[in-house]
Design brief:
With 418 residues, the chain is α+β, with helices and mostly antiparallel strands. It is built from twelve helices and 20 strands. Helix 4 packs antiparallel against helix 5 and helix 6 packs across helix 7.
Length: 418
């Protein structure tokens, strides 16, 4: 695997996780590594003198950021190949000028991109404010690699939020769902994963964000209120469990747990739901959406179908003939769905799985909230072929596995790349 790929990824993780509230003592950023080349490059990136101490076995070069934004090198106990601790309250203070410049650029780019997606200027400003204030809700971010990446990498990332922040409340509400997950199993899937959260506990934290984004494309306050109501109603009926998989043969398939099957079915058939889904699907202005609440049935199960036809099919190469079809159905306490499928055969197969009790809910792991496996090289190669732009994949990892767990009052991400 390309070593630069991993180092760059680790740097991005740090860049995306600054903190803006000082909650503990110590440097805003500490990098501890046994790799002198990485340490030297880090020093240069902060325009700091690149003289390195000589280290012995069991020791590491320790770089700490001072108040002036300069890295200071010393040596200390090794904690694997790389160990980084970021305390971005001070990071944001030290680099306040650069952050403000970045905000201006972000606002300009967001205005162009999100405006086309149907957001008005007030909504765009709200999102920019939220993005730049979000770091204030993170207390610490830690990245650890026990060994130098060669043919693969094993990365541990942990995040602790500020306790009385929105993020802190959301993380506190995170817990695996005790009902388990009905897990799909397709050996040929390029992407597959599972999610297990307790939605009734998590919903109060997620709802404001869901309501905000549900208003995308709404033209007035009445439509915004209608979309927000649909978002709240939908969330109240979902359990918080889901498994999904995506392959070229079957498209995207998923099975989610439902708390109120009859209520969700009734919501789908409402005029408000149809209007909200149509707005969301047509938000970019280059498509026409049609919702059919009676698109067929299988073994007595009603099938709902959303058909989105794009004006310029060449801009949607991953959708056959420029038409995106999403099919949904309620089967017992499960919500099954397919998208980008060539027919309803995939959805009917999911209905059969549930009705014939071929798939039972199981735990996805002790304390695990989500896991995802992705065929990285295969996925990128396929995307490049769609764009008729062959991309060399020899240096890309074949597989990436991500596991997210609750860890004390924070969350942990375990990334394994092979």
């Amino acid at each position: 695997m390309n070593r630069t790929f991993l180092v760059t990824s680790s740097a991005l993780l740090l860049a995306l996780a600054p903190v803006a509230q000082e909650t503990s003592s110590g440097s805003a950023l500490t990098i501890r590594t046994t790799d002198s080349r990485m340490a030297r490059n880090a020093m240069r990136s902060f325009d700091s003198p690149s003289e390195m101490p000589v280290i012995e076995a069991g020791q590491a070069i320790v770089l700490t950021l001072d108040d002036g934004g300069q890295m200071v090198a010393s040596k200390g106990e090794a904690k694997g190949w790389l160990h980084v601790v970021a305390r971005p309250p001070a990071l944001m203070q030290t680099f306040a000028t650069q952050i403000q410049q970045g905000r201006g650029m972000a606002q300009m780019m967001a205005g162009m991109g999100l405006g086309e997606a149907g957001f008005d200027s007030k909504q765009i400003n709200t999102m920019i404010d939220a993005a730049f204030s979000f770091p204030e809700q993170i207390e610490t971010l830690e990245v650890h690699l026990a060994e130098e990446p060669e043919d693969g990498a094993d990365v541990h990332v942990s995040l602790v939020p500020v306790a009385d922040s929105w993020l802190g409340g959301m993380v506190a509400a995170l817990a695996p769902n005790p009902r388990g997950v009905k897990q799909l199993d397709n050996d040929g899937a390029m992407v597959e994963g599972a999610i297990s959260v307790d939605m009734p506990k998590l919903a109060p934290s997620l709802l404001p964000m869901m309501k905000f984004f549900s208003a995308m494309g709404a033209r007035n306050d009445e439509e915004k209120a209608q979309s927000a109501k649909i978002a709240e109603s939908s969330m109240s009926k979902l359990a918080g469990t889901m498994s999904f998989q995506w392959s070229l043969d079957t498209g995207l398939e998923s099975i989610a747990g439902v708390l109120d099957p009859a209520g969700l079915q009734e919501l789908w058939k409402s005029e408000d739901y149809a209007a909200a889904m149509k707005r969301a699907s047509e938000v970019a202005g280059n498509a026409e959406a049609t919702l059919n609440t009676d698109a067929g049935e299988h073994r007595g199960v009603n099938i709902l179908e959303m058909r989105v036809e794009y004006d310029t099919p060449e801009d949607m190469p991953f959708v056959e003939d420029g038409i995106m079809i999403t099919s949904n159905a309620i089967v017992g306490d499960s919500f099954v769905s397919t998208s980008m499928a060539r027919s309803q055969a995939s959805l009917k197969g999911l209905i059969d799985l549930v009705m014939d009790d071929q798939i039972e809910p199981t735990s996805i792991g002790q304390g695990v909230l989500a896991n995802v496996r992705m065929g990285v090289a295969e996925l990128i190669e396929w995307m490049a072929e769609l764009q008729n732009a062959p991309f060399p994949v020899d240096d890309l990892p074949e597989q990436a596995h991500v596991t997210i767990t609750k860890q004390g009052n924070g969350i942990a991400f375990h990334v394994v790349v092979r």
